[in-house]
């Protein structure tokens, strides 16, 4: 049966449809696009999981080629109208995503799962810039959304989440401050991790692994851990704050709380 029909927000002739045939033992992903209001259809399932039924499709209001799909095995997006699909994880379990909605003002994506609640991807605008040229770069910092400062409400005396039994529930809000979104082509690895991964590959081939020397082990132990540092400056170029972010490959996020560094002395104890 037809699980969803969506009309394009950019072209009045374009529409999308997804089909669900799992009740007949067919779990293939059926996602199609029509450029002539339904007279003809073309599959845009691309490289979606071959056994991942598509339940919902939505189109980004800012970029026609950016689509989101809720499937049997999670949430996916495509930056090129269905040629390739990438799974959006970020803590979302591998579960059915039954419905999707976009909050246009904030550019937030809301996903409703089957039995595991709702998930919100705050400000997904960085996905509009994903292309081959972007992914080929070693690192990319995406435009920063205008940040607002405000005083957090404390209805329960300053606690993070109050308790009124099952009649009141609140979920965590996005962190206060300016959110930096950036892309790393490769993970920043220590020499120790690089050596260990190389040894694992040699072990898979039944080849001899390199046993490090004492000096090499000492160098690994004394090596400073890799880090991504984002520097915030004012209009005069003065450093306001340095913010540390993740070092894993792919899209990363970190938040500056709009404050100067704390005035307390540095603590050298762990």
Structure description:
It contains three helices and 16 strands. It has 270 residues and is mainly β. It has a four-stranded antiparallel beta sheet with strand order 1-2-3-4, with no helix packed on it. Strands 5-6-7-8 form a four-stranded antiparallel beta sheet, with no helix packed on it. A three-stranded antiparallel beta sheet has the order 9-10-11, with no helix packed on it. A hairpin with a 7-residue loop joins strand 7 (74-78) and strand 8 (86-88). The longest helix has 14 residues, at 191-204. It is globular.
In short:
The protein has 270 residues and is mainly beta. It is 10% helix and 31% strand.
Main pleated sheet: 4 strands, antiparallel
Q: Percentage of helical residues?
A: 10-25%
> Averaging pLDDT over every residue, what do you get?
89
The residue ranges in which pLDDT falls below 50 over 5 or more consecutive positions are: none
Count the DSSP helices: 3
The number of E-state strands comes to 16
Please list the strands of the largest sheet in the order they lie side by side. Answer: 1-2-3-4
Element string (H = helix, E = strand): EEEEEEEEEEEHEEHHEEE
* Category by helix and strand content: mainly beta
Note the gap between the termini: 59 Å
What does the radius of gyration come to?
A: 23 Å
Described by the principal axes of the CA atoms, the overall outline is globular
Q: Strand portion, in percent?
A: 25-35%
């Amino acid at each position: 049966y037809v699980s969803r029909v969506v009309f394009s927000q950019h072209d009045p002739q374009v529409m999308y449809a997804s089909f669900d045939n799992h009740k007949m033992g067919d779990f293939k992903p059926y996602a199609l696009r029509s450029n002539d209001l339904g007279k003809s259809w073309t599959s845009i399932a691309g490289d979606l999981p071959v056994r991942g039924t598509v339940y919902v499709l939505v189109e980004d209001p800012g970029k026609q080629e950016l689509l989101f799909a809720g499937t049997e095995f999670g949430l996916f997006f495509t930056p090129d109208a269905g040629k390739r699909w990438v799974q959006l994880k970020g803590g979302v379990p591998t579960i059915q995503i039954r419905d999707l909605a976009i909050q246009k003002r904030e550019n937030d994506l809301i996903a409703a799962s089957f039995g595991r609640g709702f998930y919100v991807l705050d400000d997904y605008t960085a996905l509009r810039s994903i292309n081959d040229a972007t992914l080929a770069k070693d690192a990319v910092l995406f435009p920063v959304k205008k940040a607002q400062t405000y005083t957090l409400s404390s209805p329960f005396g300053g606690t993070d989440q109050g308790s009124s039994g099952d009649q009141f529930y609140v979920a965590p809000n996005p962190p206060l401050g300016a959110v930096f979104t950036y892309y790393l082509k490769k993970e920043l690895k220590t020499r120790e991790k690089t050596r260990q991964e190389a040894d694992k590959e040699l072990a898979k081939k039944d080849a001899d692994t390199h046993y490090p020397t004492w000096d090499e082990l000492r160098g690994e132990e004394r090596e400073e851990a890799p880090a991504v540092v984002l520097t915030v400056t004012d209009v005069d170029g003065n450093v306001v704050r340095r913010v540390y972010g993740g070092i894993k490959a792919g899209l990363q996020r970190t938040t500056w709380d709009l404050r100067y560094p704390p005035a307390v002395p540095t603590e050298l104890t762990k």
